[in-house]
């Protein structure tokens, strides 16, 4: 049998060589061609077809896809019978009767090509066409692609050798299935399933006669009959469809009446878009984070190139942690306070404590490259490693890291110091970074613009008031490097990927951050000291159906009771601190505002036992050049933007909505036996005895600060400029300009 097939193939090649003048070249004879034949089956390497990768939310609903070629491979029994009939009728009507080459078809094509003086009709079988498409698909360069379709005898001979092997390896049904899946139909649709959806908004199993004839006609020259290219192309496709219908009737596959009824149908091209990439996703920032997570995660390949190729071609189904309820809650809250047309941008991330699962990533700007529409082309919510930018200085959201360091070193809730309204480093180099270098310059003061003066502040009152001078003194006591190490253990790293700036004003938030990172750090406190890397992928399924699950990557980085004590203090921010003018969310919550020096950015980060979130606002054109003073945001004018004013309100509204239906969970009470009271040397000084004519001293500082609420309230309890006075990294920080 093989000899017969081989002999037939030889005959076909010789006919093709004669029929196609360009194949043989000058001086090429039939005898010379025969000498070169040596036609034996040769194994065809069939690399996997490029298939789209789909992203699913936590409920299994698609929200994004990536593809090099828009393709969804299907089994032959998932294709309508009329589609199989149509493609065989027009491309290779004797497909089930011949071997690798249709001798009759080749002779017939040869006669027409010779009489026509050129290539009038092709004679390739479906098997040969499949081989050619495989070779084109495997080509990685333009030169390789050209070679795969070159009109040369050597290419044709190789194609036949491969076709012989394919016919031995697969059944006719398997070859047809592979051909339908690999073929290009036009309009960016590869494979019969994608083409059915693109052209007619239905799966291949539901195709009607006239629809099947349309797609069968499209494969011959899809670039000429591409219906998305305009009316002329659609007219050519309609003509081609009718040719298919006539051929089906001629072969007796349908009746003449069925053909005539189908020809009366309009083309019916629905032009269903198959949006790819994050720009087309309803949740672009989450999509960007997932895309970059795949590109940087070695679980998806050894090199970045391999991982990106897998994303574009691998046909993966990626299930993510995206919670659309939380996502929409964040989007609604942001929209209420910041417009898409505003130059300052608000960004928010939500993370589950104890797992690191990222539930939402939202921002006020639309993702895209249209600057006229105020779109932005990078991830506003994530760090540079996940497609983000440089971020914004985090301000006083860093103060809890110093608080945690103090509690971890044994300080109690009411331990404190007497501080002035301005802090000076004790001496040059009095702070030590983690390399042992001395930093700090007494000539550059840190001021309290939120307080007119100083006074005695405890860990509790200093935190609730967000007192700069107190936290500078506290960091001096516990150590700069120790504070930096504490922050790093909670996942803190700069948004731009550079090393953290370890200067004396570290506690005041001089480093630029992104909401995902800050939210993850606060989730660690909520989880009683368990840090979990931000996680966006829970499961991936490859094209063969193999599932891989991904578990949270967590570790205990902090004493549970230390985290409880910090939570206890930070809970008071809503009642006695810088969020008191905004209020809480109706369930146990803790957090910290962050208004940077000179109002360059404003933050709020907070958590419940069930969900942590961080919100930032700043101007991506340059936070120092375009600060948040005298600005209109969301249609409202602000002389100064404080951490609680916009970011805090977004946080409050979004958290209330995101947690609807979730039973409130209480924090673990602080161990008062360990953290209650104060240490002897750090207790508040006793007031002097009463004097004649004077009432008892009230324990207030020289600016009249109240110990329960030790800060000036502007605009309903907002902290005023509680962030970090800084200078360029590598130089001494500068004193803040107090508004």
Automatic annotation (TrEMBL):
<dbReference type="InterPro" id="IPR050396">
    <property type="entry name" value="Glycosyltr_51/Transpeptidase"/>
</dbReference>
<feature type="signal peptide">
    <location>
        <begin position="1"/>
        <end position="21"/>
    </location>
</feature>
<dbReference type="Pfam" id="PF00905">
    <property type="entry name" value="Transpeptidase"/>
</dbReference>
<feature type="compositionally biased region" description="Low complexity">
    <location>
        <begin position="723"/>
        <end position="739"/>
    </location>
</feature>
<feature type="compositionally biased region" description="Basic and acidic residues">
    <location>
        <begin position="688"/>
        <end position="703"/>
    </location>
</feature>
<dbReference type="InterPro" id="IPR023346">
    <property type="entry name" value="Lysozyme-like_dom_sf"/>
</dbReference>
<dbReference type="InterPro" id="IPR001264">
    <property type="entry name" value="Glyco_trans_51"/>
</dbReference>
<dbReference type="InterPro" id="IPR001460">
    <property type="entry name" value="PCN-bd_Tpept"/>
</dbReference>
<keyword id="KW-0511">Multifunctional enzyme</keyword>
<feature type="domain" description="Glycosyl transferase family 51">
    <location>
        <begin position="60"/>
        <end position="248"/>
    </location>
</feature>
<keyword id="KW-0328">Glycosyltransferase</keyword>
<keyword id="KW-0378">Hydrolase</keyword>
<feature type="domain" description="Penicillin-binding protein transpeptidase">
    <location>
        <begin position="353"/>
        <end position="611"/>
    </location>
</feature>
<keyword id="KW-0121">Carboxypeptidase</keyword>
<dbReference type="Pfam" id="PF00912">
    <property type="entry name" value="Transgly"/>
</dbReference>
<protein>
    <submittedName>
        <fullName>Transglycosylase domain-containing protein</fullName>
    </submittedName>
</protein>
<keyword id="KW-0645">Protease</keyword>
<dbReference type="InterPro" id="IPR036950">
    <property type="entry name" value="PBP_transglycosylase"/>
</dbReference>
<dbReference type="InterPro" id="IPR012338">
    <property type="entry name" value="Beta-lactam/transpept-like"/>
</dbReference>
<keyword id="KW-0808">Transferase</keyword>
<keyword id="KW-0732">Signal</keyword>
<feature type="region of interest" description="Disordered">
    <location>
        <begin position="677"/>
        <end position="739"/>
    </location>
</feature>
